[in-house]
Design brief:
The protein is an alpha/beta fold. The chain has two domains: 5-17 and 87-213, Rossmann fold (3-Layer(aba) Sandwich); 21-85, Putative phosphatase, domain 2 (DNA polymerase, domain 1, Orthogonal Bundle). The chain has helices at residues 21-32, 40-43, 51-59, 64-82, 92-100, 113-123, 144-155, 167-175, 190-196, 205-213; strands at 5-9, 16-17, 87-88, 103-112, 131-135, 161-164, 179-183, 200-202. The strands form two sheets. It has a six-stranded parallel sheet with strand order 5-4-1-6-7-8, with helices on both faces. A two-stranded antiparallel ribbon has the order 2-3. Helix 6 links the parallel strand 4 and strand 5. The longest helix has 19 residues, at 64-82. It starts with a strand and ends with a helix.
């Protein structure tokens, strides 16, 4: 078991801003499979959820075959164009550099692991993380809590600080008995994160840096 501090970051809405990438990929998939497209601003509310959940919610359909076709179409555009549309939040690289001197950094995302790694490689920050964990396409670890448990088990962590922008990140942290910091500069509101039970809420990258460097 490691004794160093561990910081587990969500990817979308926490480290990177996928604000145009994800909605554009969703609309590409909807159009390709004969469904109505949705305004980009409306689609931003779904960032952080699994693709299956998003397509079921947006279309109102539960047909697994249709949902899978949408997910496949989404990934088709994501890998061709979507990766290049991701942006880093200003100040996040400096934060990661500073926090890395205090412990180990990990990514835990419901994106497939290969997709996470491609985004991090594109942005030039993959080397700042000890390891990246994403959803397994086999379905063995697809929810946020399952991915987080995988990180804890594989890395031999007894405790960690989880940083994320949605209620599902905070709920997963609670299930794994981890400290949690919600970030409302992403796609979840301060109210959502507080209601989920976040130990702290940072409204800016600067506030998050202060929380982490003050020993949370």
């Amino acid at each position: 078991m490691t004794n160093s501090k561990a910081y587990i970051f969500d990817l979308d809405g926490t480290v990177v801003n996928p604000g145009t990438a994800i909605p554009r990929c969703i609309n590409y998939a909807l159009k390709k499979n004969g469904a109505d497209t949705v305004p980009i601003e409306r689609l931003k509310r779904y960032i952080g959820f699994s693709l299956s959940e998003i397509f079921a919610e947006v279309t109102g359909r539960k047909d697994k075959r249709f949902i899978k076709k949408c997910v496949d179409s989404y990934r088709e555009r994501f890998h061709k164009e979507g990766i290049a549309e991701h942006r880093l939040y200003p100040g996040i690289v400096g934060l990661l550099d500073a926090v890395a001197s205090r412990g180990s950094l990990y990514i835990a995302s419901t994106k497939p692991q290969a997709s996470c790694e491609m985004v991090l490689d594109h942005l030039g920050i993959r080397n700042l993380f000890t390891k990246t964990y994403g959803a397994e396409l086999t379905g063995k670890a697809s929810t946020k809590s399952e991915v987080l448990k995988l990180v804890m088990n594989k890395e031999g962590l007894k405790n960690a600080t989880v940083i994320g922008d949605r209620a599902i990140d905070i709920s997963a942290a609670k299930q794994c008995r981890c400290n949690s910091i919600g970030v409302s500069y992403g796609y979840g509101t301060k109210e959502e994160l507080t209601a989920a039970g976040a130990d702290l809420v940072a409204e800016t990258v600067g506030e998050l840096r202060q929380c982490l460097l003050n020993g949370v």
